[in-house]
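Cross-check.
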Amino acid sequence: MAEDDLMALYSRRLLALAADIPHLGRLPAPTGSATFRSPQCGSTVTAHVVLADGRVAEFAQEVRACALGQASAAVLGSAVIGRTPAELAAARDALRAMLTQGGPPPEGPFAGAEALSPARDFPNRHASILLAWQAAAEAAGA
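Predicted model, tokenized:
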């Protein structure tokens, strides 16, 4: 891996996202919670949700991850409120396809995940990037 490629991966945009993760913490009475851990790097994300009328009404996340995992959690956290479990699952699957199959980034409220597209060329980073999305979808029952 070339050093220039690695520097491009950790762009100012990604580092800015990692520094400002929405909804950090826990919820006092979540209707669902899920934790995912990357065995490759040890990053862990726990998502807590409260669903009301089939949509995420409250959300919190505990993020102990590398900069890419943190940036990914920031993108998710900025768009998760008001989403259905099906929307969370579709966004998770679109992000996975973007990283592993060269697919387009998630659409609509999750379009900010496009910032993570440079990680396509770094398969060892994919698990960490997907953690928050997997945890949120599972916590919501998707």
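The first strand starts at residue 32 and ends at 37. The mean pLDDT is 91. Passed to J.P. for a second look.
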